[in-house]
């Protein structure tokens, strides 16, 4: 009887979802005024009748249905009526953006590499894909992951020497996540996708005090405690999503991560990528040792002065001697290479600090920004932020002045908190899930191309649509929250799906005591541009990050609030608005993100934002020199 009951429940759920999706499609095509009400109905239906597995199946089904070119042509013809030429949507001739291109090891001429936004690309003289790790069929269970790729290391050394013999520059590239030209090079480019063979707990030549875990002091929820952390060795070209798989296989987890996992770990470190948590540093803060190939093909293992490597054991190691690896344990040099913007050499491998796998409870609540702002300003701001392991705020830069009530017209924000959880849940339950509608839509292949059309078609409604998108992010069940509880890797990944390849952002750091000044300036600029129908198509975020000693980290000077402004590629007016916002924020002391910027970089600006830049410059000459400089860095040095 239970089997019959389960079948009927499954059948009922699928029938309801099918019916609601069909009705929503009819409204989109013939009665758009009713679309918001039907989205609400779809939201409730997905929450009550659709588990994660079912949601994935529905996404795959929809992607199959909209795959044929004829279907896409019908949709775009319907949508493009009365649209300006530059704002039309094209579904039938364009392919969707994907996570990364896969480059062949056998083709090193006439290659083209570009960043994911498409504003920078390189057609290098030669393109190399060294290393022996698996990429498309990556598995941490592979036997090769337990060994060090010395053959790949020798390949990289030879490439650097070849570049210098031919008088060429050389640089490594990862996933192309940066909006700036930080990764570009027109001479020799090295794709790092196969520099990912090593995926293992770090034990070789490690000091005894670190081999089986070590105690660290943390300060979460305004309470100091100790945790046992571990060392994990990974390849420099490993994608973060693969690194998460490898850590999970060994029972570990990243201490923190950004909202997306498509980047390579070295790229994230090189630009000081971060998550949120005022007591948690950015990704480079987890690095305990870095092996890189610098100018002259010299190989260095660089660590802090009191590093994790046993020097005597290291110097006696047969493979270390064979490959001429030099151990450097020096704070100044380590702080220079930790955030090296690709100019200190090719990062071949890393030893990261990790912690045992853990769970997080996330709570997201929609509130009025002025109310939250008043709370934050009442007492000790640091204590307020640190009341949770993670605290961040998503703010609508606009008020919805067309809303029915004065309360609805207030500027809205989403407050997100995350804390450790000891709960373990086996079955689906809406009260412990992230809102379904946002992650459901983001998995549909054409959603990225439809998004700019929606915003351009209804640009005057962007304030209301932004409020709706904030509401969609509230954790279910019910608009009052209820939380999302899961393994940390699932909670910290924001589940942007296909949409993340169509969004782009600029980001800036401010000391936490200046965050409200920066927010007020952003709102003022956005509202002034709104009069000219130029609007951002997304809320902006406040994320708080612990100080990091790396010379070029945005957090080098102290604990920072990182403010990320986001829009969607193709929305009219967003790019010039980004440029105005960047100029305004730099004028009041913002520290720009090395990978998320749209204005030109020059020396005076860099030295003001990064006081240790001249110190980093000396170490860059030691490790990378002219061999690893590119046009982006040269313009800074020479301006």
Automatic annotation (TrEMBL):
GO cellular component terms listed in the entry, alphabetical order: membrane
Alphabetized PROSITE patterns for the sequence: FAD_PCMH
SUPFAM superfamilies with a match to the protein in the record: FAD-binding/transporter-associated domain-like
Gene Ontology MF annotations: D-arabinono-1,4-lactone oxidase activity; FAD binding
FAD-binding PCMH-type domain sequence ranges: 138-357
Keyword field: FAD, Flavoprotein, Oxidoreductase
Alphabetized InterPro entries for the sequence: ALO_C, FAD-bd_PCMH, FAD-bd_PCMH-like_sf, FAD-bd_PCMH_sub1, FAD-bd_PCMH_sub2, FAD_lactone_oxidase-like, Oxid_FAD_bind_N
Matching PANTHER family: D-ARABINONO-1,4-LACTONE OXIDASE, L-GULONOLACTONE OXIDASE
Protein name: FAD binding domain-containing protein
Source organism per UniProt: Cyclobacterium xiamenense
């Amino acid at each position: 009887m239970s089997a019959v009951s389960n079948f009927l429940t499954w059948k009922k759920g699928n029938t309801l979802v099918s019916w609601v999706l069909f009705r929503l499609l009819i409204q989109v095509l013939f009665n758009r005024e009713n679309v918001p009400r039907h989205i609400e109905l779809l939201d409730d239906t997905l929450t009550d009748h659709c588990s994660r597995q079912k949601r994935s199946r529905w996404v795959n089904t929809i992607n199959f249905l909209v795959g044929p070119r004829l279907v896409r042509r019908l949709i775009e013809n319907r949508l493009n009526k009365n649209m300006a030429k530059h704002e039309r949507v094209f579904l039938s001739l364009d392919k969707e953006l994907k996570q990364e291109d896969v480059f062949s090891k056998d083709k090193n001429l006439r290659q083209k590499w570009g960043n994911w936004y498409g504003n920078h690309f390189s057609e290098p003289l030669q393109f190399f894909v060294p290393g022996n790790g698996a990429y498309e069929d990556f598995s941490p269970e592979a036997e090769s992951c337990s060994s060090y790729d010395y053959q790949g290391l020798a390949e990289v050394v030879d490439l650097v020497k070849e570049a210098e013999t031919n008088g060429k520059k050389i640089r490594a590239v990862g996933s192309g996540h940066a909006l700036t030209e930080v990764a570009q090079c027109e001479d020799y480019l090295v794709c790092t996708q196969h520099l990912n063979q090593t995926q293992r707990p770090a034990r070789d030549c490690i000091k005894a005090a670190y081999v089986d875990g070590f105690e660290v002091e943390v300060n979460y929820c305004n309470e100091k405690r100790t945790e046992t952390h571990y060392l994990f060795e990974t390849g420099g070209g490993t994608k973060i999503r693969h690194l998460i798989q490898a850590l999970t296989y060994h029972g570990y987890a990243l201490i923190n991560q950004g909202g997306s996992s498509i980047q390579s770990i070295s790229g994230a470190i090189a630009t000081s990528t971060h998550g949120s948590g005022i007591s948690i540093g950015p990704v480079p803060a987890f690095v305990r040792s870095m092996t890189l190939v610098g100018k002259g093909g010299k190989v260095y293992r660089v660590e802090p002065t009191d590093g994790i490597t046993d020097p005597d054991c290291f110097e006696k190691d047969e493979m270390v001697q064979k490959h001429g690896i030099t151990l450097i344990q020096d704070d100044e040099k380590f702080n220079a290479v930790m955030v090296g913007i690709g100019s200190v050499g090719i990062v071949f491998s890393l030893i990261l600090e990790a912690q045992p796998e853990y769970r997080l409870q996330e709570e997201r609540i929609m509130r009025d920004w002025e109310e939250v702002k008043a709370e934050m300003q009442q007492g000790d701001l640091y204590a307020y932020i640190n009341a949770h392991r993670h605290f961040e705020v998503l703010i609508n830069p606009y008020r919805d002045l067309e809303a029915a009530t004065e309360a609805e017209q207030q500027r809205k924000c989403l407050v997100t908190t995350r804390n450790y959880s000891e709960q373990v849940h086996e079955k689906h339950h809406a009260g412990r899930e992230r809102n379904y509608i946002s992650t459901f839509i983001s998995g549909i292949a054409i959603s990225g191309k439809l998004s700019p059309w929606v915003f351009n078609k209804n640009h005057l409604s962007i304030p209301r649509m932004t409020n709706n998108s904030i509401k969609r992010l509230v954790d279910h069940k019910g608009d009052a929250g209820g939380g999302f509880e899961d393994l940390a890797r699932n909670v910290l990944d924001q589940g942007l799906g296909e949409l993340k390849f169509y969004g782009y952002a600029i980001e800036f750091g401010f000391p936490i005591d200046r965050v409200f000044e920066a927010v007020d300036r952003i709102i003022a600029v956005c509202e002034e541009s709104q009069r000219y129908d130029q609007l951002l198509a997304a809320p902006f975020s406040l994320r708080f990050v612990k100080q990091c000693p790396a010379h070029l980290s945005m957090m080098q000077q102290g604990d920072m609030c990182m403010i990320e402004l986001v829009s969607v590629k193709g929305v009219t007016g967003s790019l010039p608005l980004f440029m105005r916002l960047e100029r305004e924020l730099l004028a009041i002391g913002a520290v720009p993100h090395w990978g998320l910027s749209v204005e030109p970089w020059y020396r005076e600006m860099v030295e003001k934002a990064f006081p240790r830049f001249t110190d980093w410059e000396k170490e860059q000459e030691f490790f990378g020199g002219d061999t690893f400089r590119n046009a982006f860095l040269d313009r800074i040095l020479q301006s």
